[in-house]
């Protein structure tokens, strides 16, 4: 959402809707109009303001569920810090299973993704990756050799310098440079105002009367209250979470006594939570059991399963299934450890002794990275300034088959975007269903606003939208005759 009075957009560190497999969301009419290259259909996808890369990761991980297609992703974000985080999430997902166990990969991902404080071991991993990322943004040849599926050619030199600065900040071990515990408390006090002394009641109201009422009942009171109070969403390992997560740092223009200045701090979400992205929907029905009207598993359990499933499918190409022991587990509210024994039906990623596989010190920054190789996927990072200029670049005209807009960036959706979409393209717009700090009337009216904006841009709705049921709205590009009739 826009920062008050500044025209800036607060960084979307995690999304306000569950992760999507974009091939599943793509309309059938869009698929029928795909162009081919070397007899392989191409699906060109533009993601504007996705923030955390959840749709990118899920689409890539589940790509082998669909007929073979070449996936070209084009990503625009409001902040370079968000592109930097997506680089980190992408490389973490692509870690070779021989170098990092599946469970450890999932645990580190969730810590970096949604925790204000992380373990020292996770910090060491981030610092190691920063060495590689600095080489990637400063040496294009090196980047192509280690991450050939990532295309940074459109990123300007100034933005490369800023990315290098971001990675150097992440790499710096001094925790006092980013006192997130203080930032979190100040932001919480400012948001709650007079309600701060009775904040536990405010947390319960937001959880039960807003998130649960709107379909996020998987989030338990214990984990939500902990996150609202401390910013720590996921505590999977019994470790010490005491190191600031510098990947959550970003800059915002604020008013100071000497004028407007750029200030580093925590400017992200403190009300909705990171649980929405991976923790409220799942294909595994055994995680959705209830007892006395309450879910027996939590959003952390679901997040852990979903990421484990995605990373498993990325390597094997087959769906992940819970071991039988986990499915028949009691109605405990504890966090599940996935997988418990490493066996996955007929497909297996073995969780070898973590002393040899997962529990390394990650002191391999001098070794050449050995990431999982992904075919038929290219990810292009684009400058933020291009969000209003894509139609002026001939290579993008009539290119995109799918366009996704987050609710924080939908104000950039104009009729110019019709020029860069292919025939019968699919437009997906994130709704504000799970935004806690919006009154229900604004959540309802936002659906009408989005429908009007999409229509003016040349897209028609494909079904009736329900603000309480839908977390995204899907539209289809109208051809010229349909547009004239409307």
UniProtKB/TrEMBL annotation:
Residue segments, region Disordered: 330-364
Origin: domain of life: Eukaryota
Domain Dynein assembly factor 3 C-terminal: 150-462
Domain (DUF4470) ranges: 13-118
UniProt-listed InterPro entries: DNAAF3, DNAAF3_C, DUF4470
GO BP, one annotated term: motile cilium assembly
Subcellular location: Dynein axonemal particle
Record flagged with keyword Cytoplasm: yes
Name of the molecule in the record: Dynein axonemal assembly factor 3
Species per Swiss-Prot/TrEMBL record: Engystomops pustulosus (Tungara frog)
